[in-house]
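Notes continue from the previous slide.

Worked example: a multi-chain complex. Inputs as given:
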Amino acid sequence: MSLIAGHLEPYLVLSGLLFSIGAFGFLARRNAISMLMSVELMLNAVNLAAIAFGAFVPELAGEGASFALLVIAVAAAEATVGLAIVIAIYRNRKTPLVDEYDTMRQ
Amino acid sequence: MPLPPTIPFIGLTWADALFLLLGGVVLGAATLVVLGRDIIRNGLFLILSFGALAGIYVILGAAIVAGAQVLVYIGAISVLILFAIMLTQSKAAPAQLTFQTQALPAALAALLLGALFAIALGSTPWGATVFADTPAAGGTSGVAATLFGPWLLAFEAASALILAAVIGGIYLAAKVADREEEGE
């Protein structure tokens, strides 16, 4: 019997750590694309938690993986629109740094 | 020759060793994504993190999700991100500051979030959660029975969402002059 991989908690701990790393990146990075990459990390953390619950809780056997697949589809849509917005803003402002997008503050 | 149940000299089972290795790669690569200065390397470490996570999905018996992870995240989203990096980086940008002025509060907030997760995980009774080493509960066919049965509406909504996202992405990323010509 495996001590680590056979329990639910290690997967949830890994998922929580990954989500925290992504949250830090989203709050701290200046580059808009870095922020989008951090969002992808957080979505992956949620996916890991969903799949872990699906693998360990018998009532959720198929639903964890189905949920993860839908999250992957939504993440693809989010990345498409998000990166298109970044490219459109870059065309106007010539910078990818979010703290220089301050037109509406002035 | 069958493998021994535990790795010799270490005493870990193979699943444990794989989980520790892949989990370490996921966390290390994610940390480098967040902390690294060179944004192209951030994107490449993001791919490494996605790949190791696909390995963890395989340990959990979700092979179909691992395949979708490799196809969609590594094959599509990461390539999209790398292209967007190449389109938006000027030569002067990487030499400047990587982090916002709020980086220290952000680190505190992330640590607080991690501590909250730890408290919530430690104080929740998860009940009798059993994990069969070989996924006996249907595996991929169980996923299909859920996705194309009670979740069919969500599946169709996801397809409509992706169509809308593709059209929106083309519209947003097209040059403004092209867009105006189209409108006239």
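Summary box: Chain A is about 75% helix and 0% strand. The domain at 9-100 of chain A is CATH 1.10.287.3510 (Helix Hairpins).
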